[in-house]
Amino acid sequence: MVQSVIAGVDGSPESVAAARWAAGEALRRERPLRLVLAWPWLFNAPPTVRDSDTGLAQEMLLEIESGLRGDFPGLEVSADRIADHPAEVLVAAAEGAELLVLGSRGLGAVAGFLVGSVGLQVLARAACPVVLVRSGEGAPEVRGANGTGEVVLGMELERPCDEVVEFAFQAAARSSARLRAVHTWSLPSTYGYAAAPLSVDLTTSLAKDAEQALAAALHPWREKYPQVEAVEQVMLGSAGQVLAEAAAQGAALLVVGRRVRTSPVGMHVGPVAHAVLHHARCPVAVVPHP
């Protein structure tokens, strides 16, 4: 069975922007696009209200679907309207999907995404990668990595995640874009209480170690994807902030990982992904991994 690219829609400008981004990505992947609309009030509404809202929902879906067919020739697109709670519907749709794309309201010209409770639930539970597409005042043009802009990859070296790296390299390969692998490092905790400033030699040595480790981690991926130009960037600082700053230089896509957790407590999205979503202005892909 061919996997689909899923776009969650609700009629908002953010979801329409997400649907358009998903349409372009579906064409690049040569996959069908499936629009999914979940209206929770249809589930418990009285019959007369439900019939009226069902008609409005169907009309909205048809309008979005028709617009995509006209703007993206060759796109195979279908639309489903499901009367249930949005988070549950989208998490279920992500099962077996290749990609799930959601819209998220921007926080203004400088800050990144405002992720609501539904978006956070889906991000924390979706089995497939989730891309959040920002729309709103000050947001850059919604586009895929179609040869313009870089694919920025947040690279973890202590516990490297093949799923995240592969997603980023494939995105860059599909669009003939350059990939920028960004790794952040920090001083060992023992130096946090140093009475005197650290020597330049020590910080230079630590930075060089990080650069060598990043180059070694990227080596097999450069061999697997020789058509992708991959550059390295090693920075001292907070991962979320550094990644957002790297993506602000015209990136088309920022890719980060999310470790799958089974604990019922804690931040299931992860601190780096959470920080990136707050600051980034380009589309952000959150890739689950063990």
UniProtKB/TrEMBL annotation:
Residues 1-134, 151-288 form the UspA domain. Transmembrane segments: none annotated. Pfam families: Usp. It comes from Peterkaempfera bronchialis. InterPro entries: Rossmann-like_a/b/a_fold, Universal_stress_UspA, UspA. This is Universal stress protein. Belongs to the universal stress protein A family. The lineage of its organism: Bacteria, Bacillati, Actinomycetota, Actinomycetes, Kitasatosporales.
